[in-house]
Design a protein that fits this description.
This protein has a four-stranded mixed β-sheet with strand order 4-9-7-6, with no helix packed on it. It is mainly β.
Length: about 260
């Protein structure tokens, strides 16, 4: 008696190690062929067969990130089926800034779908970019001194715990106007970082803030005329003694 066979397969199955052994039930099995031939045969309409379902291979790609002083990496995974989700762990070999840095990936966790997959590549790469630091400058007011030299205080935000970062004292700060005034711009340039881990950060080399140049209060010189004493000089950018006019009136009446 001639034996007829038919093979069954599951689309999407890929060859890899560690197959999963399964048993499948097949129902409503019928013979097919010429009537005068198949009438000589019969077959069970129910059968149990077994086979292997192999784990599906996943491709992993590294994603870039900004420095965050962490080994954790972000990756993209391709070849998942439908709405399947897996748990994984992805880590850089170190947390410092660099290009094409190694990322090690492993499937991890207790999701039932984890067992249906394995990684085609457990090593990929990604870039870690420098983190931008923000500095808030506050101008320090000063009395008029015929100089454009400016002063300020500052605070830095965005530094991660464990990194010791500050700005270098080689910056330049100048008022745009040397004369008395309020809300005067102070231009700050040549700003740079120093400290431990500065290669993981960057900062704008220029900035500005505002300040006040107050009128300068002078210690006046006096002229002794008889029994009267009066202020002798007044110049621009000076706080004028309010008694000056009274002294001039007294001096004028004395001279007359």
């Amino acid at each position: 008696r001639r034996r007829h066979t038919r093979s069954f397969h599951v689309t999407g199955v890929q060859t890899c190690a560690l197959p999963i052994y399964v048993i499948a039930d097949i129902y409503n099995i019928y013979l097919y062929g010429l009537p005068n031939v198949i009438q000589n045969y019969y077959i069970n309409k129910y059968a149990t067969v077994s086979g292997n379902i192999y784990k599906r291979l996943l491709q992993v790609y590294g994603n870039d990130k900004n420095y965050d002083r962490s080994l954790l990496a972000n990756v993209s995974i391709s070849n998942l089926v439908g709405l399947d989700v897996i748990n994984y762990v992805a880590q850089y070999d170190d947390f410092n800034v660099g290009s094409s840095k190694n990322i090690y990936v492993a499937i991890s966790g207790s999701l039932s779908t984890n067992n249906n997959y394995q990684l085609f590549n457990s090593l990929t790469s990604g870039n870690i970019y420098q983190r931008l630091l923000n500095i808030a400058f506050t101008g320090i007011n000063k009395p008029y001194n015929a100089s454009n030299l400016g002063y300020f205080t500052y605070s830095i935000s965005g530094i991660y715990t464990g990194d010791i970062i500050d700005i270098s004292n080689n910056y330049i700060a100048n008022y745009r106007n040397i004369n008395f005034g309020y809300s005067l711009p102070i231009d700050i340039s040549n700003i740079s970082l120093y400290g431990q881990g500065i290669t993981n950060y960057y900062i704008s080399s220029t900035n500005y803030t505002i300040g006040i140049i107050y009128k300068k209060l002078l210690s006046t010189n006096y002229i002794l005329i008889s029994s009267f004493i009066a202020p002798a000089i007044i110049v621009q950018n000076i706080f004028i003694n309010p008694s000056y006019r009274q002294w001039m009136m007294l001096l004028k009446s004395f001279i007359n």
